[in-house]
Amino acid sequence: MIPEIGHFALVLALLLALVQSVLPLIGAQTGNARFLAVARPAAQAQFLFVVLAYACLVTAFLQNDFSVRNVAMNSFSQLPAVYRFTASWGSHEGSMLLWALILAFWTMAVSVLSRRLPEDMAARVIGIMGLISVGFLAFLLFTSNPFDRLLPAPPDGRDLNPLLQDPGMVLHPPMLYMGYVGFSVAFAFAIAALLSGKLDAAWARWSRPWTTVAWTFLTMGIALGSWWAYIELGWGGWWFLDPTENASFMPWLAGTALIHSLAVTEKRGVFKSWTVLLAITAFSLSLLGTFLVRSGVLSSVHAFATDPARGAFILGFLALVIGGSLLLYALRAPTMLGSARFAAFSRESLLLANNVVLVSALGSVLLGTLYPLFLDALGMGKISVGAPYFNAVFVPLMVPVLFLMAVGPLTRWKGASLPDIVVRLRLAFAVAVIAAVAVPLAAGEFKPWVALGVGLAVWIVYGVALGFADRLKHGGNLLALPRGFWGMQLAHLSMAVGIVGIALVSGYEGERNVKMAVGDTAQLAGYTFTFKGAEAYEGPNFHAARGHLVVKSASGSEFTLRPEKRLYNAGGMPMTEAGINYGVLRDIYVAMGEEIEPQVWTIRLFYKPFIDWLWFAAALMALGGALAASDRRYRIALKDKAAA
Amino acid sequence: MNKRLIPLIVFLVLAVFFAIGLTKNPREVPSPFIDKPAPAFRLPEVGNPAQTFGPEEMRGQVWMLNVWAPWCVSCRQEHGVLMQLQAQGVKLVGLNWKDKDREAAALLARLGSPYLSTVDDLDGRVGIDYGVTGTPETFVIDKGGIIRFKQTGPISEEVWKEKLEPMLKELAR
Amino acid sequence: MKRLFMIGVTLLATQVLAGEAQPVGEDPQIEQRLNVLAEDLRCLVCQNESLAGSHAELAEDLRREIRDQMKQGKDDKQVVEYLVARYGDFVLYKPPFKPLTLVLWLGPLVFLLVGGITWWTVLKRRRAQPEGMANTQARAEAARILEGKSE
Prior knowledge:
The complex is a heterotrimer.
Chain A: H1 2-30, H2 33-62, H3 69-74, H4 81-86, H5 92-113, H6 119-143, H7 167-196, H8 201-232, H9 243-268, H10 272-295, H11 308-332, H12 347-377, H13 387-407, H14 418-443, H15 448-471, H16 483-508, E1 510-517, E2 521-524, E3 527-538, E4 542-552, E5 558-561, E6 564-568, E7 574-577, E8 579-581, E9 586-597, E10 600-609, H17 612-629, H18 632-643
Antiparallel strand pairs in A: 1-10, 2-3, 3-4, 4-5, 4-6, 6-7, 8-9, 9-10
Helix pairs in contact in A: 1-2, 1-6, 2-5, 2-6, 5-6, 5-7, 6-7, 6-11, 7-8, 7-10, 8-9, 8-17, 9-10, 9-12, 10-11, 12-13, 13-15, 14-15, 15-16, 16-17
Chain B: H1 6-22, E1 43-45, E2 48-53, E3 63-68, H2 73-87, E4 92-97, H3 104-111, E5 117-121, H4 125-129, E6 137-141, E7 147-152, H5 157-172
Parallel strand pairs in B: 3-4, 4-5
Antiparallel strand pairs in B: 1-2, 3-6, 6-7
Chain C: H1 2-16, E1 22-23, H2 28-39, H3 57-71, H4 76-87, H5 102-127, H6 134-147
Helix pairs in contact in C: 2-3
């Protein structure tokens, strides 16, 4: 019964989404106020019905209703409740419903927080988001119904993919989707502005906080995914540049470029059509990612079970949404040059340079991801493009971006004096060079990439410090500085933190693959690992061997690690669960291999210096995003609304 | 040309590629051995290790090297088809790939063997020499010992009728 | 007493069983080379994993094969050639630079070049542009709409 209610709620949500899109868009075009007024209630009602549908799906999972195909394929009676809940988005169907839910949520948020917008603008934005909802709900109902029955019901489910049974997976997909789908708001604003022909500063100002919030979620989602890969895949990797990861990384790059170009458009009224294009691009790449992951055109570790009919549906939908928007862009984007003047060396020119390089990097990632597909489609053979390509191409492109990061915020709008900046940053350069030489030497081995990373990090930190010094030159309180300023500086600072992490872990990580019998010891990076044996234990839906290692550092401190090798009851799939001792300066990471003789195991030992700085950087970056989005200027609009 | 059309054009080109991509399987990898000589090997026969076999013994004949394993489910699917082919006089040689549990001899005795000869590639080295990634895979080898075609996955009636049979006829001339 | 007992057991264990753990491969130098090389090679039967990270049987066989080749004194290039001869360029995560991959390798450079030229033309145009009032007015208008007050 409950699955049928869910199915019915989805049908109603689809009808409401149709109303939410068609009437307001017609109303905005013809000036019909009654049609315009439909937008908000329809959006809110659509949200309620999608929530209802999702609640039904979750109920089916929690109640182990294996007569629902989706539950039977992706859950298991012994699965702990929290993973039964997360299994609701562990399948293709469920994750699509989560997409629709989050899209409805963002639409609802726009409908509530848009009182200050001109009525026709708000109606257009909500209408366009409604059109996207129509596409996704139709996709769910026609090709991927999460409530399909499986009769007769099997006695038990096939279990959730054990890789997904991890705390990192609880939050990773919702966060990621909040980011992906959040870009639909900036997209809808851009399309609405193109439709109305009013690409003014109000549009840029409105888009900014929404974009920043979406970007913040996407940042957290990507970081959680990386952390999950680190602890779950059992060999200490944290980023694989797999097509699926690129699918989330490309919108992030586009979103980052968009945040910067929106700043220029809002402040100076220039780059309007470029900003519109970026807003369309960021969301288009989110949609493209969905297509790539679900259609089976690329092979990836994370790919969902694929089905050509679904691929064809999404491709048709992509063609409509992206093709339509780009056509509208070609017809309606302003050809008039904004009326602002700026010098070759100015905040504007540097932000434009930032965009040029970010978009080149984005283009390269896209090219690398799709190149195997291009060759295959042309019948020119199969190749693989993996991490070595992306590292070779992406890292050099990031160097100028990071270099400009220290310069840009210190440069004034309209025009600045290059010699002044050179004088101000002279010392920063010197300090950066010294650090670049000293840190790798202190670490024991000079490596050029580590030197470059450390140098850039110091350079950025120095730039951030100068930025604060500028603001406080005439006195004032650090905490009284605008949140927008804090947000920007924290986000920049987080890049420095992240680079240090990446540079040091890539440069100095250590690994050993050893055979250990009980009592055996192994040395790595000054740590002594003693294997005390492995014991069998029963988990809720798996049985495992849990190793027991005592690790002693050079300074004599001791800790215990308990890595696991699990065998899941339902699929018989083996999984490693790493034993990790976290530390600010290093992680000690241990993964069980195979039991080659009774109580003799192959064990992989890793020393990962500064790796946690990566996730610390992501947290700092997200904090920066949250601060920037909650800047006073955006809150005023809300407060006034509440008072009104 | 209006430069604002460029993004649209780029997207349309991508969309065409995606549409073609939907019809292809990214897991299907072409063999680099097509039109190259079949790598030499000499392996003991299943059930009769004293007897060995090497591909040079098939010189002057068109034949197929079928890579299979007793633990492989889809090999069992094609077994029936292979038996029919053998009855029609198609020359098949089996490469028993990584049969650690030594089950091949018993299995062939029970189900019947479609092979002129089945050889034992216990450690999978010959499989690697042929670029085998899984079972079943079948190589069509011509009179001069040149690999002409590789079938990845089981040989079904359709695959035989549409691809292999015409090819074998052509090569036999 | 208990502690003493533990020490005793530990000592005993150390004497009887314990020793320095043996590396999985016999030659650590070759293992090191293998790990580095395998990072850049594709596990052919996995969805998308490197040969270094995969637990698949074929991946283990291939690692063994690479190890043997290295022991025979072949350098990395020869090992890679050996694999490419059997599995094609598909096995390489870093595609070779050849006519077929020209666009792949030169694309990023072209993007940057086109971007750089665009950047330069925009700057030239902007420098010649007179600063108008329209922009200031638009910002005031935005502030009026969004905050209900003038900036």
